[in-house]
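Lay summary. Proteins are chains of building blocks that fold into shapes, and those shapes determine what they do. In this project we predict the shape from the chain. Here is one chain we studied, written as its sequence of building blocks.
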Amino acid sequence: MTDNGHEWADALASAFAVLKGKAPRSIPGLLGALSDVDISDDMIADHLENAGDDDIALTRARASLAWWDATDTLDVAATPAHTVARRDAVYAALELGARSIEALNRRIEIFEAPALVISKEFEPWYEEARGKRANMYWEDYEDYLRNVKNWPEESIAALDETTTDVVRRLSEPTRTEIKQTKGLVVGYVQSGKTANFTSVAAKAIDAGYRLVIVLTGTIEILRSQTQRRLDMELMGEENILSGQDPDDPSVKKELDYQFDRDWLDGRFVKHGDGLLQPGVAEIARVTSHQSDYKRLPQAMSKLKFARKNKRKALNDEENLFHSGAYVAVVKKNQAPLKKLIQDLKPLRGDLAQLPVLIIDDESDQASVDTTNPARWRSSQTARKRTTINGLITQILEICPRAQYVGYTATPFANVFVDPDDERDLFPSDFVLSLNPPPGYMGVKHFHDIGSNFDGEQRTVENSNEMAFVRGLEGDPTTEPDLRLEELQQALDSWVLSGAIKLFRQSRSDTRFRHHTMLIHEDVRRGAHSDAAAEVRDIWFRSSFASSAGLTRLKRLFEQDHLPVMRARADGSPVPDGFEDLKPFIRDALARMTQDGDPVLIVNSDKQVQEQQKKLDFEAESVWKILIGGAQLSRGFTVEGLTVSFFRRRAGQADTLMQAGRWFGFRPGYKDLVRLYIKCSDDPRQDLYKAFEALLLDEESFREELEKYAGFDDSGHPTLEPRHIPPLVSQHLPWLKPTARNKMWNAVIANKAPVGVQDLYSLPAKGSAAHAANFDEVTLPLLRSLDPEPLTLPYRLPRGGPGSVTFLSGLADADEVGRLLAKMRWGDAGRRTSETISMFLRSAVRRDEITDWLVLVPVPKDNTRWLAAPGLPTPVPVITSNRREGREDFVGSDRKHRAAALAVSLGGSIPRYGASATRGIVILSITSDSDPGGSSDIGPDDAIGLISIAVPSTSIVDDKKITWTVKNSDRPDDVTVDTGDHSG
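And here is the predicted shape, written in a compact code that computers can read:
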């Protein structure tokens, strides 16, 4: 019976369960068949309004509505997915009354698209195949996520949709013609990419793929961790045992998981009778938790594919769905890859017909060929590839039906691959960019990008930086004492947060199996041993349980942890004071020193390999301080990570981003997370600001993809993967996107500024170009202002409505075009500005832009003004800071952009009315030398920060993007011109 006591509500739950994955139809009709009670719409509405969040009827309604919101295979797909129109069509088919619809709208938001896709056209096949074949592996995985891992329905629905988007773009396994597909899935660091490729593997095996090769990173602890995840959640008990008796002592002796707590507790998936369904493949593991790929003696291959009908091809349905499948989890190391290739080569006859799926985790690491293409082009010799790239492309060559899907959170190296080299791994068919899943704590959760405090004091409640980030200033060489003080505080924070976790366990159902701290300062193995000795020395001198130690902990608790918990605990239990916490400190210390040593070194040094066995998050509860470098920098998930002490520099954006192990899911302890990170006046040493620049690069890249994703009215892609490289930005001049820039295949010649575009790259302050921008562009725009303030409404996507105040004025389209053409830009923004200027000139010529509304934001409680001659009204100065060594410098915030965007869509506003051909210029005035001052500023210190929005009517016909393609032999010359040159 559902949780609020209505017996008939079980029938409501059953009705939604029956409809999951099928066309929506009458709920009242189904209830009549399932229940003896006459159930009115008011009764349904009352139940939905009052049910708990985990009520089974509400949960199943949520699952079904999420699927209907997204599907493109049913009659409701005549309406756009993820829209109000789609939901209304579903409600009409369900024949629900007005009150029930209102209740569902209030309790279940419209399911947003969980990813955006840049794709070539493809031949649909998967939805039909899924409808007529067994889907046991996917369905069992879906049940596992729901019932064992307690995933919310929205997350499961998002996973289903995004992985269907991948599988439907692969080649149909039974297809007669040979076709390889190459794609890339872009996630976030530690955001659940393993769950995504596990789902892809499950669906691919259900659909007929019979060899799945999962390439992990370059280190064994990551390969082993990935193997266990796949064994536990996909392969399952039956395939692991392969018909053997688990109680047989000889079987137990060789079993991977004989001491694994989850295996002993029955938490590995069980397929049961599902394996007996027609067409379901048993899976044979050719690698294990403790062993990478190995050859059998005398070249006896593990891989054998029997045919039921030898007169037909292996991938004919009659053979394919009576054949078993193989899964190999192999690290990107030449020894196991060569062994795998040696075992594949004798199967060449079968391989020509075998559907193979290659999943490349961390695909920007080791997989990308870094040889200089000019070297082999100029010599006219065969291309000599880097080792791992050569081995992967060799597998693709000997497995002509292989499909390649790369996974990464840092895709820049992948999209710079030469797309004209058909043997290489460029994702020529699709790039799928995942949205951050619910509960994920990423880069933006540690920074205040997009927050304009507008004179408001920053607090732990409104500032992510103040809540979670603690700057490190001490240098090991020049300020060793200060560094030791900072390290002591980080250790104290880890002890306190461990005690708070145990306090929360005592007052809730939440359990914290792991509690870890990461110290990452250097990649050299010798430095790890030195750091470990230093940490142990501090630890054993800390006297945490003594009067002095408790006094120190109490001070940190009251000054740091308690204010943040009160602001951000989000319902988790919070101690009233330190006395409530003291009983749990001793227990936390006992867990941390269970074997006498709170420290674990994690690196490739053979002397520390033995102790790394303690770093088994699956078999044991881990409460340790982890010290390492590269082994902990990529792919490997550090469970329970709460405190990070990070000082490691990197010269490439992708290397630095992957080192951010503090990103991930922190259920029940988000407010306890602390990042101790190097800060400095030297921009090249300031790691916190470097990560902020990475956030801007990452968000800019994804926003650009979003603008050009999808298909135009004729069904052709707006953007193909080969067009992606120019969308990569670089906000920090010294931090390159990746180690080596590959071929830039294309450049953008003409681009519409979709949405509100910040023009951010300005010349250095004090330069002649800086002064000219203000005199020749900013002042003329300011002279168009009306003295009377203008208030405009806005609505944020995930917030309530509001209003902002501007000074405003209308300016002629040609005049604004001439002014913007005079702007001088820094190197990072010059190309973008040129492409936008070309679009603006073309749009003005076509009369798609006839005038511009100039908007100058007026801060609340403004205290500073611009002192410049000839202004029609006093102009306020905002607080905004140009950061040293950075070219990103913008003045608008999301409220200004939301208000401007509404106007650009043709909305009517006071004084100016409505216009479908009106552009918007947001002009923010700030001081470029004294951003936090209190006195008025003159022209020498002032700078105008510009953002623009063009009228929506000017962005038609593939969103007006024009590409020029570089010649592959002379990459610096533009020789081919493609795209729309209308106007």
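What the prediction tells us: DSSP finds 31 helices and 25 strands in the chain.
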